[in-house]
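Before the break, one more example. Copy the sequence into your notebook; we will annotate it together after we see the structure.
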Amino acid sequence: MAAPLALTMGDPAGIGGELTLKAWRALHRSGPTFVAIDNPERLAALAARLGMEIPLHRVEHPREADFALALPVLRIPLAAAAEAGRPDPANGAAVTAAIERAVRLALEREVAGVVTNPISKATLYQSGFAYPGHTEFLGVLTGTPEPPVMMLVSPGLRVVPVTVHVALRRALDMLDMETIAAAARTAAQALRTDFGIAAPRLAVAGLNPHAGEAGALGDEEERIIAPAIARLREQGIAASGPWPPDTMFTPQARGRYDAAICMYHDQALIPLKTLDVTRGVNVTLGLPIVRTSPDHGTAFDIAGEGIADPSSLIAAIRLAADLAARRTGATA
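Here is what the structure looks like once it is written out:
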């Protein structure tokens, strides 16, 4: 039997539990299969609250349950009762424990990959979490020597932000030639190995309006971005730019590249989420395991109301299964 994916619970006060239940309902007949690393009592109470008849099976091993008959759950205890819409730092240890267990299972090949439900960084910081977000934490857990890279994927666009979960002012200070080139190299390698694109094309965004207007509106393009592109070309990577950020996401422009390398978080995520937020997926590149996530947050404002859209999580599960199958095929 093929290994299932591991699906972490995310913040127990957010919409992750509802999404997990809805994903099982959508996929239990067709797959891909997954095991929820969560609190089964919480999921059962949530299903009852939402009027969802979802059979749960607490398991001790990812492959024990028949996914078609019941949602398998590897139990994570909670320190405090989960209340929809009211995050509690007391449960921070449970949130991180679910991630740690999923990663350990993936490294041991007991699961095919990891799909993470949304976490609340602010809440985790209150519990002592020392990492900017999932991406950095996963890099430490997997012992990845190079910083992992975040890619957002939708049916019509792939984007990679060079700087991610930092204040914009700090992000500008973090940009340099090697940081840009390193993120692009990781993206190019992942496009080849995980997405099956033999000769990936990268479009590198400028930082300033009009990509600096030949230095009149900023010199970062000439000083750090163009040299990074030149270095990538020397290394055999088809990189182009710097492109004006306000025109590189048009339908015509998107057809000329396989991924856009963007300078900061919102430069990458705004166009992707505007185009297709319901099917956007967060993929962590550069890890020895497959990891995907929905492209949205915990949505505390609608948690427990039964209206959360599971489309992005379902897309994340399907993409994780595809990536895992491609990796398995490459190493078979």
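Residues 1-144+287-332 form a domain with the Isopropylmalate Dehydrogenase fold (CATH 3.40.718.10). The radius of gyration is 20 Å. Try to locate both features in your own notes.
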